[in-house]
């Protein structure tokens, strides 16, 4: 019996010496290399570390120095100067589930290709780490990251696991191309739901704070978000700038406040923007709201050729549409003011009152093309219930027929300017007049126009202007059919007889001042020339009693009478 006892004691002593030797060897560079080689050869992972350190003062902690870890054939998932692994009695039943894993001074790359990882932890802690998450919905890159995830149970396609609490700060961070610094994020993951109870960051020389949550379908709800003093320059167009929002399944905004922001893109800009948005949901290219509100003002807004100064906008959202309580702006040297409603049922914009004063506006070169273009799907009609113009200057620099009107005044009611997504004058009444005008290098004074439109015809009941010596008066009508058949009856008394030559009628064989009577008709169609459709008759007599009558057929003129000599 004594021999068996001594034998067992000897075997136990040898085992203890072997364990102690292995313990000492593992903490050498040679031992670290052997462990790294064994794991690399016998698993689907590659591991390299220089040293393992264990101290009896902290018996539940193993420290690895200069660690590189990753999947075979993939870029390294982890590169760190030190990894502190906290173990517990749980390792007896689940050896790959750690108590804590703390990463120091390195880089952690987590992507769908790297997950699932072979181990888990009750807590994953980061200390001065860089963090990258490429090839995911959130293209994330962060530096100087400190914080933790509890618990950490990575799985395929979900590097943070299905359920975890997150508390992370970062010195700098870039999310989907948007940089930020001094970032703080606190929240919770539950399956595919994300609740961010704290979001704080310095970005674009300003700051962002708020709370938000993501549902299982990928939609976001912003409970509260505030942006202060943002100064952002983008290389994207305005549509591309907001594209990430439109691609979300839904975005529900509880409260969004923007203060003193300056944003700029290649063809757009806004300065000194203050914005307050409440209770609005964006989803699948549309919006919904029960009691939403928008208040916005800025010093300057630019979008293409549109340039607004001091715009102010106040609107309310409801299931029925948008109530535009106020819109005012300085535009092209003048003032623009309106209010009204956009109605969801008919996608109709109804402006109750439009006032334009002091405008100095040159029409864009392609304004005729824009007038013929189809309006977007959300805008089927535009109605001005009441409008007023005061002291405006409007210029068209079209080389084929330039014109301008000075001190343009006007008023009108129930003017339907768009119908079935097409611009036009479809209904209503309007009266316009100016102090002076020039039409294709012909100067006139006191031009005036009065019209009435209905579903079948635009009737110009009055069209008059004073020339250098006389007066021109006319009446006209334009059909609302696609052919746009137009008729005009023009009378001139004491006017230069060549006045209509500048407007397209061939030169007359008589000269001087006199009286003219013109009746003409033609078709003003979108893609067809006007001249071949014009038929008319002109009678002119000058002060010397010379008289001529001409007939136009298909745009060609024939003279019926010849001028008689002066007696």
UniProtKB/TrEMBL annotation:
<dbReference type="Pfam" id="PF05170">
    <property type="entry name" value="AsmA"/>
</dbReference>
<keyword id="KW-0812">Transmembrane</keyword>
<protein>
    <submittedName>
        <fullName>AsmA family protein</fullName>
    </submittedName>
</protein>
<dbReference type="InterPro" id="IPR007844">
    <property type="entry name" value="AsmA"/>
</dbReference>
<feature type="domain" description="AsmA">
    <location>
        <begin position="1"/>
        <end position="539"/>
    </location>
</feature>
<keyword id="KW-1133">Transmembrane helix</keyword>
<feature type="transmembrane region" description="Helical">
    <location>
        <begin position="7"/>
        <end position="26"/>
    </location>
</feature>
<keyword id="KW-0472">Membrane</keyword>
């Amino acid at each position: 019996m004594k021999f068996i006892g001594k034998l067992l004691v000897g075997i136990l002593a040898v085992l203890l010496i072997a364990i102690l030797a292995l313990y000492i060897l593992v903490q050498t560079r040679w031992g670290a290399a052997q462990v790294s080689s064994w794991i690399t050869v016998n698993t689907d992972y590659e591991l390299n570390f220089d040293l393992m350190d264990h101290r009896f003062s902290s018996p539940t902690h193993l420290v690895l120095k200069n660690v590189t870890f990753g999947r075979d054939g993939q870029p390294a998932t982890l590169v760190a100067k030190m990894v502190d692994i906290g173990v517990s009695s749980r390792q007896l039943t689940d050896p790959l589930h750690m108590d804590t894993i703390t990463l120091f001074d390195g880089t952690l790359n987590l992507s769908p290709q790297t997950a699932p990882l072979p181990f888990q932890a009750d807590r994953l802690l980061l200390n001065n780490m860089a963090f990258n998450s490429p090839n995911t919905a959130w293209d994330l890159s962060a530096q100087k990251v400190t914080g933790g995830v509890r618990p950490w149970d990575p799985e395929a396609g979900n590097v943070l696991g299905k359920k975890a609490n997150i508390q992370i700060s970062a010195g700098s961070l870039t999310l989907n191309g948007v940089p930020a610094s001094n970032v703080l994020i606190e929240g919770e993951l539950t399956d595919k739901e994300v609740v961010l109870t704290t979001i704080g960051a310095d970005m674009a020389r300003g700051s962002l704070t708020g709370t938000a949550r993501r549902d299982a379908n990928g939609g976001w709800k912003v409970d509260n978000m505030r942006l202060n003093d943002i100064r952002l320059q983008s290389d994207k167009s305005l549509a591309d700038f907001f594209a990430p929002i439109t691609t979300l399944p839904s975005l529900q905004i509880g409260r969004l406040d923007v203060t003193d922001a300056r944003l700029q893109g290649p063809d757009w800009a806004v300065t000194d923007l203050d914005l307050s948005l409440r209770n609005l949901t964006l989803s699948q290219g549309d919006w919904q709201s029960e009691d939403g509100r928008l208040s916005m003002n800025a010093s300057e807004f630019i979008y293409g050729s549109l340039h607004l100064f001091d715009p102010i906008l106040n609107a309310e959202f409801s299931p029925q549409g948008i109530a535009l309580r106020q819109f005012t702006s300085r535009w092209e040297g003048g003032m623009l003011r309106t209010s009204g409603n956009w109605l969801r049922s008919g996608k109709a914009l109804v402006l109750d009152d439009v006032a334009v004063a002091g405008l100095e506006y040159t029409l864009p070169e392609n304004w005729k093309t824009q007038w013929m273009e189809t309006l977007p799907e959300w805008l089927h009609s535009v109605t001005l219930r009441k409008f007023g113009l005061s002291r405006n200057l409007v210029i068209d620099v079209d080389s084929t027929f330039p014109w301008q009107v000075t001190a343009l005044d006007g008023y009108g009611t129930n003017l339907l300017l768009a119908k079935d997504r097409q611009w036009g004058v479809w209904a209503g009444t309007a009266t316009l007049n100016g102090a002076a005008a020039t039409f294709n290098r012909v100067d006139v004074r006191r031009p005036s126009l009065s019209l009435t439109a209905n579903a079948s015809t635009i009737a110009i009941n009055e069209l008059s202007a004073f020339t250098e010596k006389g007066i021109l008066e006319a009446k006209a009508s334009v059909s609302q059919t696609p052919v746009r058949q137009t008729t005009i009856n023009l009378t001139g008394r004491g006017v230069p007889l060549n006045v209509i030559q500048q407007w397209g009628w061939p030169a007359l064989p008589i000269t001087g001042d006199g009286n003219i009577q013109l009746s003409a008709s033609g078709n003003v169609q979108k893609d067809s020339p006007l001249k071949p459709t014009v038929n008319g008759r002109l009678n002119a007599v000058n002060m010397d009693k010379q008289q001529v009558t001409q007939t136009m057929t298909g745009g060609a003129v024939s003279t019926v009478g010849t001028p008689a000599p002066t007696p």
